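Checklist before submission:
- one chain only
- standard amino acids only
- sequence pasted in full

Submission:
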Amino acid sequence: MAAATKAKGRGLSVYIHVPFCAVRCGYCDFNTYTAKELGGGGSQAEYPANAMREMDLTLADDEASGFSYDRVDTVFFGGGTPTLLPADDQARMLAHLTSLIPLASDAEVTTEANPDSVTRDSLFRLADAGFTRVSFGMQSAVPRVLAILDRTHNPESVPRAVAWAREAGLQVSLDMIYGTPGESLADVETTIEAITEMQPDHVSAYSLIVEGNTKMARQLRRGELTEPDPDFMADAYELIAARTFDAGFEWYEVSNFARGEEFQCRHNLAYWRGLDWWGIGPGAHRHRDGYRSWNLKHPSRYAAALAQNQLPVDGSEQVSDEDRALERLMLEMRLREGFSAASNPLTSSDEARVVLEAHVAAGRLDARAWENGIVRLSDAGRLIADAITRDIAAL
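Returned file contents:
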């Protein structure tokens, strides 16, 4: 029962993957499906009951393994587009989770949403059900860029959705993507200015990564689109960082900015800090003290397993100490708070110290933090955080 003692008194984060989209975006490689692609037990109508059944089975599996949690600290409905489901369905799933493990009094409960997938009434219903936060996939304020990304909303729908969320008492996060083929620095500036004018609580700014099995990747291979060069990506990031800082945001992870610590996304911080989380839904991943598992990806196969009263697990692994150290390095390097070099075997050796001190001397790591043994990115280092990680991992 050592595991139970270890987990008792700890909070849990819960990710609920809702794999449905009205339209598949050309750049997206996530585990998502349109209504036409689904049949059998994997439909949107049957999804809430399936997800709640998985919660029951996951709790039973934890208890059989000697794990228990006192509370749920964060919940994140992601996708896909979770708000394609009726608000009452999202509320039912949250209520069922709460019946199994109580929500912390200050729990953060987020749903992702497209600006055109919500109404004033649906946002009020979510707030009444216990949701505290909504993350809108804005991506760009430039119609031409949205068209290249195959986004279905228009820029005018975003301020309206933000206003409704504010009226409902929800915190607001806005997501943007930079580096869309054909996007200019002026386009990036238009987007970040539109975002700061709406005064959200949180901004996520992600560089576009084109995955191989997507419509956009095929367009690039055919020469129909041109991928931006690394210099443009660096210029775009520096512009976003400067504009968000001027608007009162602080970066707390390389791609994430908040108006203060109270508006940081605690759910994502749970991932970045290697805490425990459930992954509910097709293709979702779960982590428990170094044990990791992932679900069957297709909603029909996922539903079929649950119909047999089985956890819909497709695979699992016990992460080795070496891999956990590497993952910690990759994730903690990106956090503004940094980490103690002595806390990770990959950064505590004499060889690692030489590499880290070279990055300090080059201005990529914070010199004052390093005096206290803390590895923390400087502003210049934010542009090459992954490269610094690779330098250390290569030792």
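Reviewer check: The chain has a mean pLDDT of 93.
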